[in-house]
Amino acid sequence: MSILQVSTSSLSSSTLLSISPIKSLSSPKSSRLIRCSVEGTTVTEPKLSATSEPLLLRAAKGEVVDRPPVWLMRQAGRYMKSYQTLCEKYPSFRDRSENADLVVEISLQPWKVFKPDGVILFSDILTPLSGMNIPFDIVKGKGPIIFNPPQSAADVAQVREFIPEESVPYVGEALKRLRNEVGNESAVLGFVGAPFTLSSYVIEGGSSKNFTQIKRLAFSQPKVLHALLKKFTTSMITYIRYQADSGAQAVQIFDSWATELSPVDFEEFSLPYLKQIVDAVKQTHPNLPLILYASGSGGLLERLARTGVDVVSLDWTVDMAEGRDRLGRDIAVQGNVDPGVLFGSKEFITSRIHDTVKKAGRDKHILNLGHGIKVGTPEENVAHFFEVAKGLRY
């Protein structure tokens, strides 16, 4: 593989990288140039015609592309000054994430500045809980709080099947508007939580460090946990379909806490339910790319591939080249720059981007971080990340 190498030897740490316009691999009759200006620097690249699929979708499907598409997990959020200003007016996370107008505005904040190849819905994996008769809140400084964690079969029986049209109509409305706003210049991404991760939050009563409660239930009352997992599985199948029908062109499944399981327990409490979700969604939406992310997944990579998803998103603790070898070339990969790299110099950020893309190889790679952007990340460094990434050519 040959990647355009951009010299950074003459750049100071405060200078943005300048990338010369590069001839598009597509026909000049079907494309035109689009300029993205960040801090006085312009990146020029071909703009897709109205009938072309977004770059991210083509890469996920294994089509030949001229550069890896790029977006960042948590790209809409607390590191952006525009988001911080909005939070002053709307301090409650749920107020911001359960109002279609605000969801659209926040989702588009990074799009308007950086023009990523993926525009992800601003929401939370716990958003469906209220519609499933699981009261919760997300409190600043504390995170999610589940008010009545289920502890028995009777408690699980009170959990309702999720009907998104009734419970979260603002999600559907926001996705429709996002799709209309970005057209095919970027892929609109939806997302859901995986059954085990959702169950972990619910059983633990919120975030956890040791996952004592969920493991106690798994190992002492497995039937109760399986009953809850089944309800989340059915509900997430419905939710993914709803998001796709509303405008999402790809959906990422977050199984953040599945890596707290040993491999044998992952095969009982997570893998079968992920496979059920993928199989069911593919029956109705065969062309919808599904992305799976699980932080700290180095010990489970081969098992993640067995879920049948189109893309496995690697965290930064896995070497990209080794991850590629372990997953095989039939599946696309996403990631996996350490989010902490964005605190480094611009030269350092550039070198890590090049290293990741080189190791990922020519096809089926979506450039991203190995986790969400950290609070306090310099916004100008995020701009630099996108600028360098969008200037790469295979």
TrEMBL record:
**Pfam families xrefs:** URO-D
- Main subcellular localization, coarse class? plastid
Mind telling me which GO cellular component terms the entry cites? chloroplast
Q: Which residues form the Uroporphyrinogen decarboxylase (URO-D) domain?
A: 69-78, 189-205
Class of enzymatic activity (EC top level): lyase
EC code(s) of this entry: 4.1.1.37
**InterPro entries the UniProt entry points to:** UROD/MetE-like_sf, Uroporphyrinogen_deCO2ase_HemE, Uroporphyrinogen_deCOase
Q: Which UniProt keywords apply?
A: Chlorophyll biosynthesis, Decarboxylase, Lyase, Porphyrin biosynthesis
Instruction: Kindly tell me the pathway this chain contributes to.
Output: Porphyrin-containing compound metabolism; chlorophyll biosynthesis; Porphyrin-containing compound metabolism; protoporphyrin-IX biosynthesis; coproporphyrinogen-III from 5-aminolevulinate: step 4/4
CDD domains linked: URO-D (cd00717)
User: Which locations, inside or outside the cell, does it occupy?
Assistant: Plastid, Chloroplast
Q: Which reaction does it catalyse?
A: uroporphyrinogen III + 4 H(+) = coproporphyrinogen III + 4 CO2
> Which terms in the Gene Ontology molecular function aspect does this entry carry?
uroporphyrinogen decarboxylase activity
GO terms classed as biological process: chlorophyll biosynthetic process; protoporphyrinogen IX biosynthetic process
- Source domain of life: Eukaryota
Which function does this protein serve?
Catalyzes the decarboxylation of four acetate groups of uroporphyrinogen-III to yield coproporphyrinogen-III.
Oligomeric state and interaction partners are given as: Homodimer.
Q: Which HAMAP family match?
A: URO_D
Family the UniProt entry places it in: Belongs to the uroporphyrinogen decarboxylase family.
- Which PANTHER family is this protein grouped with? METHYLTETRAHYDROFOLATE:HOMOCYSTEINE METHYLTRANSFERASE RELATED, UROPORPHYRINOGEN DECARBOXYLASE
What is the recorded name of this protein? Uroporphyrinogen decarboxylase
Task: Tell me what organism the protein belongs to.
Answer: Capsella rubella
